């Protein structure tokens, strides 16, 4: 009877362990504007979160970084040429962008809330807005003025690499 009980506990533990949702460590975000500009972002996060209070991957400016290892952004013009690359987060460190906003739910594969990724200095490009409502690609001129160069209705693709 004890052996049967131990086998039952082992099988139950194995079943529960395997049925838990796996969290992949990498996704690619794909945005395309109505004017054919594109933004591709690569997001890398640890398989096991250091902060177990939440299963969210996020960064807000330079202060709040949670469960995010890398966030790289590539901007492509309407002719398919790469016009900018940014390392917004590298080695779990946010880089010189106080406006950075990114919040990703790796279990449901959704971006939640406000999004602002890319550059933040003169002649940089950045994507901002709210997924599902509207996303705009902006260019900053030499004086720091924002110019919207493309837009879509908030659609952004999320590709898992597993």
Annotation, overall tally of beta strands: 14
Helix content: 10-25%
Q: What is the CA-CA span between the terminal residues? A: 42 Å
Mean pLDDT level: 83
Describe this structure in words.
The chain is mainly beta and 162 residues long. 11% of the residues lie in helices and 46% in strands. It has one helix at 2-19; strands spanning 26-32, 38-44, 57-60, 64-66, 70-76, 82-90, 93-94, 101-105, 110-111, 115-118, 125-130, 134-140, 146-152, 157-160. The strands form three sheets. A six-stranded antiparallel β-sheet has the order 7-6-5-2-1-14, with no helix packed on it. A four-stranded antiparallel β-sheet has the order 4-3-8-9, with no helix packed on it. The longest helix has 18 residues, at 2-19.
Characteristic key phrases:
single chain; 162 residues; mainly beta; six-stranded antiparallel β-sheet; four-stranded antiparallel β-sheet; globular
């Amino acid at each position: 009877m004890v052996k049967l009980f131990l086998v039952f506990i082992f099988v139950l533990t194995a079943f529960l362990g395997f049925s838990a949702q796996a969290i992949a460590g990498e996704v690619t975000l794909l945005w395309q504007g109505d004017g054919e500009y594109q933004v591709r972002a690569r997001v890398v996060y640890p398989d096991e979160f250091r902060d177990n209070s939440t299963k969210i991957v996020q960064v807000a400016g330079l202060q709040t970084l949670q469960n995010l290892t890398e966030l790289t952004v590539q901007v492509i013009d309407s002719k398919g040429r790469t016009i900018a690359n940014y390392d917004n987060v590298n080695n779990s460190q946010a880089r010189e962008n106080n406006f950075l906003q990114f919040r990703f739910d790796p279990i449901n594969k959704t971006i939640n809330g406000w999004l602002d990724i890319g550059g933040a200095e003169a002649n940089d490009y950045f994507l901002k807005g709210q997924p599902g409502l509207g996303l705009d690609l902006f260019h900053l001129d030499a004086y720091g003025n924002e110019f919207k160069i493309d837009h879509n209705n908030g659609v952004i693709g999320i590709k898992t690499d597993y």
